[in-house]
Amino acid sequence: MLNIIIASDDIDTTIGTNCVLACQHLHNAVDLSIQNVTLLNGYLCTPVEVEKAIVSFDQQRFILVAYSHGTEDTLFSTAAGNGYVSLANAYQFATSLVYTVSCWSGVKLKHELIKHGCHGYVGYVDRVKVPENETDELLFIECENKGLVHLLTTGASLTESVEEMKRYYRKQYDELIDQEMYAVAGPLLHNLGALTFYDYEALTRSELESH
Amino acid sequence: MATSTKPYIVLIDDDITEDQPLIGYLHREYGASNVFLFQEPTEGIRFIEANLAKRIIVLLDIMFGEKAQGFDVFDRITEKSKLVCFIVMTGNLEAVSKRELQRLVNRHAWYIVQRDKSAKEILALINEAETHLMMRVDGALEEWILRHGPDEQQKPFIKTRGGESYSLADILLSLRTGENEAIGQEMAADILAVAIDLLVRDKSRIGKDNLAGSKESK
Asked: Could you tell me the CA-to-CA distances from A190 to A22, A185, B14, B62, B134 in Å, in that order?
């Protein structure tokens, strides 16, 4: 069984709907019904609730999936302006994979998490742009979730999954170019360029389950 | 991303009158409704400020009587928009101080020209300025935004997971002034990155046949 925390700032005025769509997409792409999933959405998206969930996993490995805003040193939400993941509680993620679509967290937070023994991280080192148009928005979400979906639905390692994610970004980008949608293709290419990851030692789904 | 409409040509110069050959050339080339002459600098500023939604090429004289008021026009407009293309005319290039020259260069005056050039030479410069405007990615993005109606421009266009949301109007303002966390420049850079990516990765998209043809002709 997988231990998963899904942090979703679905009450945020700018990206709340996007967080809901991203969450829905993940649930449609991966059967999580028999997994140990803790959804921290709305006002539950706080460091206190994150800690409670981690404690409940009893030191087993877990995945944090974060759909929210971010800065260089935090993943933050409407309920936790100073961050539900930050430099202050990075030590709690020692046995985890942190998979986030937030802006900027690859700059500092990633390294703090790694310093504390985090096994894997996927995130971004720049602003992550998302179109307001829902069709394009879903396309961006598919790209952003691809690495996690691949990791959880195949035997691939995190590194291989991120490589697959990059290929998928490229494929979607090429389709936008074919449709001459340059103003959307540009931000997608930008997001791909901002993607960063860390894979301690070829982390796979089975390793996340078995410890 | 080629431009589809002619730019406004704005002349701010107290020595130019409607009956001079340059005005006739400009009317023929750009259409009379796109050519505007102001002998008063403040009127020129007011007009440009009210028309920042248009691509504008300004032919600006520095000296108005004894005063170098052209610099005020230049400063006032370049504070609001970096996309207006200035051709600065001066009676005596040597008389422009180092500091003033620095100001013009730093704020991207496109051309500084001696004012004794012929009307045809000035027209050629304006033509070049138009090409320069067309070749700029930020200019192309600006024009693409302006092709959307006013209501469409106000709708949210892109958001970030850093907490910002931008309409096309926000992006336009950013292109011109650098405001809104420089999202306009960032969008222009994204589009430039796409163009570079296409050139580097997939040459067929820019015309494999044409490239082959040009090779043969060498």
From this structure: 19, 9, 48, 42, 24
| Interface membership of A180 toward B (CB under 8 Å) | no
Q: What is the mean pLDDT of residues B1-5?
A: 49
| Contact assignment for A70 to B186 by CB distance below 8 Å | no
Judge whether A91 and A55 are in contact, CB under 8 Å: no
Chain A CB contacts of B161 under 8 Å are: 15, 18, 68-70, 101-103, 127-128, 130
Of the candidates B110, B119, B22, B29, the residue with the CA atom closest to the CA atom of residue B74: B110
Span B84-92, average pLDDT:
86
Q: Does the pLDDT at position B1 exceed 70?
A: no
* CA A108 to the chain's CA centroid: 16
Please name every residue paired with A158 in a beta bridge, in sequence order, or none if there are none: none
Measuring CA to CA, which residue among A73, A144, A84 is closest to residue A113? A73
Query: Pick from A52, A44, A79, A50: which is nearest to A65 by CA?
Result: A50
Q: What is the pLDDT of residues A153-180, one digit of tens each?
A: 999 999 999 999 999 999 999 999 999 8
CB pairs under 8 A between A and B: 73
pLDDT value at B203 more than 60: no
For residue B113, which phi and psi values (nearest 5 degrees)? -135, 145
Burial per residue of B137-148, b for 16 or more beta-carbon CB atoms within 10 angstroms, e otherwise = bbbbbbbbbbeb
Q: Which CATH superfamily is domain B8-135 in?
A: Response regulator (3.40.50.2300)
State mean pLDDT over B137-146.
Answer: 84
Give every CB contact of residue B218 below 8 A, 6+ residues apart in sequence: none
Q: Which residues numbered 74-103 in A keep a CB inside 8 Å of some CB on B? A: 101-103
CATH of A3-208, one of 3.10.150.10, 3.40.50.1460, 3.40.50.1820, 3.40.50.2300: 3.40.50.1460
Portions of chain B given CATH number 3.40.50.2300: 8-135
Identify how many contiguous H helices and E strands chain A contains and give both numbers.
7, 10
Residues A98-111 pLDDT 10s: 999 999 999 999 99
How far apart are alpha carbons B6 and B73 in whole angstroms?
23
